[in-house]
TrEMBL record, chains A, B:
In the C-terminal section; belongs to the class-I pyridoxal-phosphate-dependent aminotransferase family. The lineage of its organism: Bacteria, Pseudomonadati, Pseudomonadota, Betaproteobacteria, Burkholderiales. This is 2-aminoadipate aminotransferase. InterPro entries: Aminotransferase_I/II_large (IPR004839), HTH_trans_reg/aminotransferase (IPR051446), PyrdxlP-dep_Trfase (IPR015424), PyrdxlP-dep_Trfase_major (IPR015421), PyrdxlP-dep_Trfase_small (IPR015422), Tscrpt_reg_HTH_GntR (IPR000524), WH-like_DNA-bd_sf (IPR036388), WH_DNA-bd_sf (IPR036390). GO terms for molecular function: DNA binding; DNA-binding transcription factor activity; pyridoxal phosphate binding; transaminase activity. Residues 9-77 form the HTH gntR-type domain. The keyword Ribosomal protein does not apply. Keywords: Aminotransferase, DNA-binding, Pyridoxal phosphate, Transcription, Transcription regulation, Transferase. It comes from the Bacteria.
Length: 498, 498
């Protein structure tokens, strides 16, 4: 940046530059606490607004980390040198439903990618986001199963009685209602529906609220599984831009409601959005619920990742603001947090409860009882709580190690999400980079990544990719990231880094 | 019957009448073997055809029981006095798709019936057809689970790897392929898809082969769950009359193909059709497969009840005739035969394999692994074989006891299916009887039945009902059947019997 250019910057940007430089020089060490807002105002003789803007800018640039109610702390800035945070979306483009050529075929596309992945000799999968079995406490789980079978010897031979809660075990229903209450949601146990993971829940929710040809607003980028469900049900996706800071753009969504009469539902991951890792601010959540209620649209909330939020602040789901209308369909799965092999989930379908129950009964009858009882038993137990905390700490460490490797090896100009929890990083590489090409090149080396094209029907994330942080970062992972980075640099005509 | 009327009967009917009388008088005892065809020809100086016709007529009337390759035996005829076998369907009526008013709302209707059942104080459920837990070997099952968790300690913490068979465990795939081979079906292990019971399988199959507005031919009467799936997918049902002797009318189906261009699929339960209990003759199966191939329609085969066929003759699924086209989608669940609580099923989707796999992946991802391994482990084991034989023997005994109770207590003019296996009886009462009314009256007495209206969208089975034979017949069941019979007699203005 030239001196002239620097001089034309607003005051907060110039101050931020000074602090960033101090961090680069090691004057401010990683982990050190920043001066308070009051102290900054006094020291630099600036307004409250300038001090706050400066801190937020440094946070957005990845230099600072905010710890709620404590203050701002210096990140390991040198390690992330050259990597900026994910860009805000361009809201100047009108939101349009995907053209026919775009929104049809995501199932085909995903299937082909998965099939290629299966046929290759993959030795490192940084594409899929399920933690490996080592990160779970299988001994405790297996003991619990053994005990449940002793206590309920006929668990596996007892069919769903048509008389009892349509296959939803009362113990599971009670446990979920208690679990929800802790997050600020009031759900009657009888309104808890057990599901096979989260895909079934979201799929049932969409089938209940929309008919073929209807439109569903989704976050952009979004989890490819959702695009598949939407396509399977012959619905149309409407991709709403997502800010990496606040999530789904409410302005764009409101415009969509005003212009698209067939828009019947919105699917949102409010906490640790997949793949961006965004945590939607509470004020934003309240406005989103109100907006959907105003337009009579169903708000389908996937809260499976809320369980992975790091820190001690309570996580409040969208459903907590849905006090009257029953407009929010709440879905949560415990695959990734408790036991991937059980595939246990649940949902509360708000005012669509009857219709969802009917569809569930028609399409797959009841969900296996064993999984329901295991989750009911474990969810509130201190052993599981400890085990989840361990898992989160491990994931945080892995995520940060992966971020450092990306910063070290990936091309100059790479941007990255720095989520406050969760299982992945979202990378945005400079224009000209093709994640599809990297996908192929990496597979040849036995490494599987998830290319950006999986996360949208619009084709606008071709230069992006999702990197799973589910593996402990050992020498093999380090080597793989170095290799991926080098291949990406080569694509862009940059010299390999690191 | 007057003498004149008797004289006008064909010879085989008169001879049959003589034998029926002999049985009524006890001259021929229950369990006694009938003379051979050769002996009958000699004794009555009749042709081979007359002797055979007489035997078949007596069998159809419920007087005789055929034991393959051994001969005909006298049933407990006095006990079934007054009860004839289910009538042949009236094929003179053209097959028409249900009127809008008919085919929409079955989900609503079923849900209301189930809800009423749930709210009542039911002490005997002869409506649902899942055997109670006592009829299964839960000790052996639980031991197997414990052993599997020892052998595969990470079974519950291992997520579906995107790299391995899309959530279908290789051991399960191999076991199903072996199991299928024993029934004369060649399936590559890789083409085995694990499903949650049978509802998911049939639902996926229909979603893969038909689009909203398309038509699906179903047996009439049929399992209400199928009507629900068809409606959920916004398809239209076309009810094809079923002979209680040979199953789905091929003539009616062919006519339907010729007149209904949107007819895309046929769903059939070829063995122990639900609710009629019909076993489709092999020649009929071959013609059905050929017919569907000729018209390019998918033939969806639900073979879950084939496992319940009694006797030692091998049971050959429709899929066994599907050697080239891949036109048959084979579905089988082990809920009712192995472990109701596991809800494990599988399917082979023939030439729609890719599409079904894609839909399954989109809608519910993989099926739990534990259930797959339990079934893989048990299906071929001698212990399970013995346990299944015990279950079948018990069901046979219960079914026959129920049939005797119906014969003793139900109105004169009641007709009944006498299936060669399975979990239920289908009753057809004289016109004027309302099973809906009996459903309500019975519920008030704590007894749940399945009224005929659940098994069709056409309203033509209002005078019918399905009676589950899953409970051991004790004094309570006897009393309940006496009560049901008395209520039915009262509806028809008959004096209570028995």
């Amino acid at each position: 940046m030239t001196l002239a250019a620097a001089a034309s910057l607003p005051l907060y940007r110039r101050l931020a530059g000074d602090y960033a430089q101090a961090m680069g020089l090691g004057t401010l060490q990683a982990g050190e606490r920043m001066p308070s807002v009051r102290e900054l105002m006094r020291r630099h003789q600036v307004s409250l607004s300038t001090a706050l803007q400066m801190l937020r800018h440094l946070e957005e640039q990845g230099h600072l980390e905010a710890r709620p109610r404590v203050g701002y702390f210096v990140r390991d800035a040198r390690a992330l040198d050259g990597v900026a945070l994910t860009r805000e979306p361009d809201l100047s483009q009108p939101v349009q439903p995907g053209a026919q050529a775009h929104f049809v075929g995501i199932n085909e596309h995903i299937s082909l990618l998965l099939e290629r992945g299966r046929q290759a000799q993959v030795h490192l999968d940084v594409g899929g986001c399920t933690p490996p079995p080592e990160l779970f406490d299988h001994r405790f789980l297996n003991k619990t199963v053994a005990r449940l079978l002793r206590e309920h010897p006929q668990l596996l031979t007892q069919g769903r009685s048509l008389l009892a809660n349509q296959g939803n075990h009362p113990l599971f229903q009670q446990a979920m209602a208690r679990h929800a209450l802790a997050a600020g949601i009031r759900v009657a146990p009888g309104d808890v529906l057990a599901t096979t993971g989260n895909s079934e829940a979201v799929s049932l929710a969409l089938a209940a609220v929309a008919a073929p040809g209807d439109m569903v607003a989704v976050e952009s980028p979004t989890y490819y599984g959702l695009l598949q469900v939407v396509e399977s049900l012959q619905l149309q996706t409407l991709e709403i831009p997502c800010s990496p800071r606040t999530g789904l753009s409410l302005e764009a969504l409101e415009l969509a409601f005003q212009t698209q009469p067939r828009l019947k539902a919105v699917v949102v991951v409010p906490e640790l959005q997949m793949p961006l890792g965004t945590r939607m601010p509470d004020a934003h959540k309240a406005r989103l619920v109100a907006l959907c209620a105003r337009y009579g649209a169903a708000l389908i909330e996937d809260d499976s990742y809320g369980l992975f939020v790091e820190g001690t602040q309570p996580v409040k789901p969208l459903k907590a603001w849905d006090s009257v209308a029953g407009q929010v369909i709440y879905c949560q799965a415990f695959n990734k947090s408790l036991a991937p092999g059980l595939r246990q989930g649940w949902m509360n379908a708000g005012r669509w409860h009857g219709r969802v129950q009917m569809l569930k009964f028609a399409q797959s009858r009841n969900t296996q009882t064993l999984g329901q009882l295991v989750v009911a038993e474990l969810l509130g137990s201190p052993t599981h709580q400890r085990s989840l905390e361990r898992l989160k700490a491990q994931l945080k460490q892995q995520r940060e190690a992966m971020a450092r490797l990306v910063a070290r090896h990936f091309p100059i100009g790479t941007r990255m999400s720095l989520p406050g929890g969760g299982l992945c990083l979202w990378l945005e590489l400079p224009e000209g980079f093709s994640s599809a090409r990297l996908f192929g090149d990496a597979l040849d080396q036995g490494i599987r990544i998830a290319p950006g094209s999986m996360f949208s029907n619009s084709g606008r994330y071709e230069h992006c990719l999702r990197l799973a942080c589910t593996h402990p970062v050992d020498a093999a992972v380090e080597q793989a990231l170095q290799l991926l980075g080098a291949m990406a640099c080569q694509q862009l005509g940059q010299a390999p880094r690191g």
